[in-house]
Design brief:
Elements lengths: L1 H25 L8 E2 L1 H8 L3 H13 L3 E4 L3 E4 L4 H25 L2 H11 L10 H18 L4 H20 L1 H4 L1 H16 L3 H12 L1 H8 L1
Antiparallel strand pairs: 1-3, 2-3
Length: 216
């Protein structure tokens, strides 16, 4: 029991550091190319180097950082090529989720999806950007969960984690209200069993790369 409590405590510390660092990186608190070290994280959050290292390692897995031997962990944006591949993969996963939902989702499942789609974000709150990412991800993961396919759900969760910095930056192109409003439109189309309509709305949300190139 003592060992389990100690392990849980370490996980909690790592999660706290991880959430704080992720929030700062996604809010562009660090410039691209900035190096973060284990010692810096350890001192900043008053933790040992183990949870600092674990948090930094997870952020490397999420592609928010890149480990450079003897230098530290570099803040690194995804390249345009990487973003295109990730958005393509996300599109495949979400189209599969939508198709499954149109074919098989029952009314109880759609009511739950309606609740997720109805979530709002108070943009006057200091941490509204992080709340937007949570609400947006919850809807898309909720849609994927209808498939009951853990491989698909985990894959989509991983893609959304990797894309989170880019997704947050996209708010200046598409806006919070428009994005969250489209969630409701997707659910309405699924309820009508309108596969083409639901797929069109879902793909429109995802295909942001081309829109950014035209609007930048």
């Amino acid at each position: 029991m003592a060992m389990e409590a100690e392990r849980a405590g370490k996980c909690s510390i790592t999660s706290t550091v991880l959430d704080a660092l992720r929030k700062e990186i996604c809010a562009s608190a660090y410039a691209d190319g900035h190096f973060i070290t284990e010692s810096e994280v350890s001192q900043k959050y008053q933790v040992s180097k183990t949870p600092a290292r674990e948090a930094l390692t997870i952020l490397c897995e999420e592609k928010l950082l890149c480990k450079i031997p003897r230098k530290g962990y570099m803040v690194k944006k995804l390249s345009h090529k990487e973003l295109c591949k990730l958005y393509q993969f996300r599109n495949i996963l979400e189209r599969a989720s939508v198709e499954y939902a149109v074919r098989y989702a029952d009314e109880e499942e759609l009511r739950h999806l309606d609740v997720l789609a109805g979530a709002q974000v108070d943009t006057s709150h200091p941490e509204w950007i992080q709340e937007y990412h949570r609400v947006n991800s919850a809807f898309h993961i909720g849609l994927a969960a209808l498939t009951r396919n853990n491989y698909l759900i985990d894959a989509l969760r991983g893609v959304l984690n990797i894309l989170q910095r880019d997704l947050i930056e996209d708010m200046k192109y598409i806006g919070v209200e428009k994005t969250l409003g489209e969630h409701k439109c997707i659910v309405d189309a699924i309820r009508r069993r309108d596969l083409a309509g639901a797929l069109a709305i879902a793909s429109q949300q995802i295909n942001i790369i081309e829109r950014k190139e035209h609007m930048s």
